[in-house]
Write a structure and sequence with these properties.
The chain is of the alpha+beta class and 139 residues long. Helix content is 47%, strand content 16%. It has one domain.
Length: 139
């Protein structure tokens, strides 16, 4: 059962493509270790991006939108309360969000392992993008 104290806002999103949805309003997650993660209106989310082969086992990737949304926000902008989080910290937030969203611990652990194995690519892509933006602003 979802913990309404940790996820106080409804998740309102619309499809912008078969894979992506876009947040129509702000969405917050209160993480017990990192604090409040505010997901911005307009954020594109893809749920749990585990591929079609695993959908037979785990269902639709958008079944995981609630815990995946704060993780997607952290991968976009890893800043929480003025502090930059490491990728590992962001992935641990996802693990805790899975549990707070009511998923079993074993599935939460499997998904955590999945983001630890496969999350490096989007993380590095977004950090390169951030670096380019900082360099352009400095000119």
């Amino acid at each position: 059962m979802i913990n309404k104290h940790r996820f106080p806002d409804p998740l309102n999103a619309t499809y912008v493509s078969p894979r992506y949805r876009m947040l129509l309003n702000y969405f917050r997650y209160f993480d017990k270790e990192e604090g409040t993660i505010t997901c911005k209106k307009g954020l594109k989310i893809d749920g749990a991006s585990f591929g079609r082969a695993f959908s037979i086992i785990f269902g639709d990737q958008h079944d995981y939108d609630i815990p995946a949304t704060p993780h997607d926000q952290l991968y976009e902008d890893n800043l929480v309360s003025g502090k930059y989080l490491t990728r590992k910290q962001c992935d641990k937030v996802f693990y805790r969000a899975m549990i707070d969203a009511g998923f079993p611990r074993i599935r939460s652990l499997l998904f955590y392992a999945g983001v630890r194995l496969g999350g490096w690519w989007p993380w590095c892509r977004n950090r390169r993008r951030d670096s380019k933006k900082r360099k352009e602003r400095a000119k």
